[in-house]
Design goal:
The structure holds 2 protein chains of 2 kinds. By secondary structure, chain A is an alpha/beta fold. Chain A contains 15 helices and 16 strands. In chain B, β1, α1 and β2 form a beta-alpha-beta unit. Chain B starts with 7 loop residues before the first strand and ends in a 15-residue tail after the last strand. The chains are: A alpha/beta, B mainly beta.
């Protein structure tokens, strides 16, 4: 309200500050105007940006009178993990439980894919292909490479299948459970078009459902086929977006998976509708315990390994995910940041694109100043795969060291010895979702009594 | 039993499927065993999958899902019916189903030739990426959905939503089409297309002149959904 007083400012009535509606906040208003001007939904990359109950809402209790810590730099705290020893003749052995999630050549430049392979290989972990097939660069630079088997089957062929170290049947991802892929024309370069057998420059849609199977009974037969083709050598993962984790994980185990991958809604995507990213799926914090419960109910916990992803940023996040029962984690967005995504070094160019370093998410447009989410040869050349791979390796090492630091403080000689009893929650919501007590209480919402 | 004279006969009633596929994977162009016969498949899944050698495999009986999946270079002949996803993701070679095929026949195939003497079910040629498919009977609904390249030739009728969201696959149907999917339209059958038909049918073993090529109608992509446009919103 504006008031005018002829006696001047000294006698003006107090004014209320402009107040934005919590419902119609500035971002919402801008989206309404954008939709009205264009007539098309907003498309962007990345994962959800809303505030969610997350690993930040958990704390470790550490050692005390009844728990003995391990000596920080003297006593061993193991980090290795074996994936896929249920049926596969050649399981995967990783030195750290932090793996690199599936990201496609097409969504990412060839240099970025190579850098992911280099970084992962330095620290002894795996990287993963994406929609669009396997490139020689990433196979060549990845010591352990997981080959995604997606509904589109772009670039899928038995030669690359046999070159892979594991096969990941993708049913969904956390950013868009129930959604297919999307790669807009700006990124369909000659090479991407050839690999996907599509006309150059079209807006490419990937199917949301597999073309030759539907449901867990069919999946069991599909997995049998993949095992027969690869002579039962390769571990077979099944990846799902977090939505009904108890039943999805139980059905994946029933279908014969060696490993299940559970991706929360914080997990990123190369491109999809904003409404999908923000409104479909559940946070990873709420998905881990039901998934682990399904494995335990089937007597398969630690026999079928669980990899969780979606918003993993630090060694603390790794330790918390493992304490809740996961065997390993996967990182995507964080790995891209380690390579150089959204780096303030390119601030002027981010501003020219109408955004700012740290908020850039128009990955589908292919104009990434950091040269990562692009197929523009000049932009892509900005990323040195060797140096970027080194940065990723450094970051992965730090995460592993941080997780070990926490595990030792809890008296654990291996990251897998972390357990829910090491955790408390800071909020009622996190306590309910993670199934650990609210700090300072015995209270786990939804459960009677303590542990 | 047909007149085929095999180098190796494999009876699935007495030997495990695993042994068959492993033996087939060990064959190569230099192997002496070029002609294989498989007895008593009895609807087993994943029979003769992942072969990469110029061998001929004749299967006497019905097979389950994914027979000849991801085939390269081999000729696989099924003297019976085939379950879901026969010749899925085939790269090259030849697969023939002497009976009927279930849904998703030739799904995502990148190359080679699939011939179905009988009918194929729904989603025949779904997401096809270069494979040629000849069906002498009819096909079910949603066939050639998102077909990228290759050709689908049907002597009989096609079910609902043929060629929905089609890319550059070429579709030829001699009978009726119940309905066309989004962005799939009827196109003129010119001499170049008749030549293509003649070439594919010859490869499929159809005697020249036994089929009147002018009876086929051609269907392809209208290419209106290749780039997003708000005016096409009701098609997405």
């Amino acid at each position: 309200m504006t008031a005018h007083d002829s006696k001047g400012p000294a006698h003006a009535l107090p004014q209320t500050l402009p107040r934005f509606s919590a419902t119609f906040d500035p971002h919402t208003l801008s989206e309404i105007r954008r939709a009205a001007a264009t007539g098309i939904y907003d498309i962007r990359g990345g994962g959800t940006k809303r505030k969610l109950p997350h690993f930040d809402d958990l704390l470790f209790l550490g050692a005390s009178m009844s728990r003995y810590p391990l000596e920080g730099y003297r006593e061993k705290c193991g980090t290795e993990v074996v994936l896929g020893n249920r049926f596969a003749k050649k399981p995967i052995y990783l030195k750290t439980p932090v793996t690199i999630a599936g990201m496609s050549f097409g969504a990412l430049s060839a240099q970025a894919k190579e850098a992911l392979g280099r970084g992962a290989s330095i620290v002894g972990t795996s990287t993963t292909t994406g929609d669009g097939g396997m490139t020689p660069e990433e196979r060549g630079q990845s010591q352990t490479l997981v080959y995604q088997y997606l509904p589109s089957r772009y670039g899928m062929n038995p030669v690359d299948l046999r070159k892979a170290d594991a096969i990941e049947v993708v049913i969904g991802q956390g950013a868009k459970p129930g959604g297919g892929g999307m790669l807009l024309g700006q990124k369909i370069s000659d090479r991407v078009a050839a690999m996907r057998n599509l006309p150059k420059g079209i807006d490419q849609r990937s199917a949301c459902r597999h073309p030759d199977w539907t449901g867990p009974d069919d999946l069991e037969i599909k997995i049998q086929e993949l095992r027969e083709i690869t002579d039962w050598e390769k571990p077979i993962y099944v990846k799902v977006g977090a939505c009904r984790p108890y039943y999805d994980i139980a059905l994946a185990v029933k279908a014969g998976a060696d490993v299940v991958v559970l991706d929360g809604m914080q997990g990123g995507t190369a491109a999809t509708q904003e409404v999908f990213i923000e409104q479909v799926g559940i946070p990873i914090l709420s998905a881990i315990r039901p998934a682990v419960q399904a494995l335990q109910d089937l007597g398969m916990h630690r026999k079928v390994q669980l990899i969780v992803s979606g918003g993993i940023r630090t060694g603390a996040d790794v330790a918390k995910a493992l304490a809740l029962g996961a065997d390993a984690v996967a990182i995507g967005t964080a790995a891209l940041v380690a390579l150089g995504d959204n780096d303030p070094h390119w601030q002027a160019e981010y501003e020219a694109l109408g955004t700012t370093a740290g908020a850039y998410d128009d990955w589908h447009e292919g104009r990434d100043p950091a040269g990562i989410t692009t197929q523009d040869p000049e932009l892509a050349a900005r990323l040195d795969p060797v140096k970027a791979g080194r940065r990723l390796a450094n970051y992965l090492s730090v995460m592993t060291l941080e997780a070990q630091t926490i595990a030792r403080a809890c008296g654990k000689s291996h990251l897998h010895n972390l357990e829910p009893e090491d955790l408390v929650a800071l909020t009622v919501e996190a306590a309910a979702m993670a199934g650990v007590p609210l700090a300072g209480t015995q209270w786990i919402p939804g459960k009677t009594g303590g542990y | 039993m047909n007149a085929f004279s095999p180098d190796i006969t494999f009876d699935l009633a007495t030997s495990p499927l695993r042994d068959l596929n492993e033996a087939l994977h060990k064959t190569s162009g230099e192997s002496n065993a070029r002609r294989w016969r498989v007895l008593n498949p009895e609807g087993r899944h994943a029979v003769a999958v992942g072969i990469d050698a110029p061998v001929t495999v004749e299967i006497d009986g019905n097979v389950g899902y994914y027979c000849a999946g991801m085939n390269q270079n081999a000729s696989v002949i099924i003297h019976g019916n085939a379950g879901q996803g026969v010749a899925e993701n085939m790269m090259s070679g030849f697969v023939r189903v002497c009976g009927d095929a279930s849904q998703s026949a030739g799904a995502t195939g990148h190359g080679g030739l699939l011939v179905v003497d009988g009918n194929a079910s729904a989603r025949c040629g779904i997401s096809m990426k270069g494979i040629d498919i000849v069906v002498k009977g009819s096909i079910g609904h949603m066939s050639a959905f998102m077909g990228q390249s290759g050709s689908l030739i049907v002597f009989g009728d096609a079910g609902e939503a043929l060629g929905d969201s089609l890319y550059e696959a070429k579709l030829f149907v001699r009978g009726t089409v119940k309905s066309l999917g989004a962005d799939c339209i009827a196109k003129e059958l010119r001499d170049e297309h008749k030549a293509l038909l003649a070439q594919k049918l010859e490869a499929a073993g159809v005697a020249p002149g036994s089929v009147d090529l002018s009876e086929f109608k051609r269907y392809g992509s209208a290419r209106k959904l290749y780039n997003f446009h708000v005016d096409n919103a009701d098609a997405y």
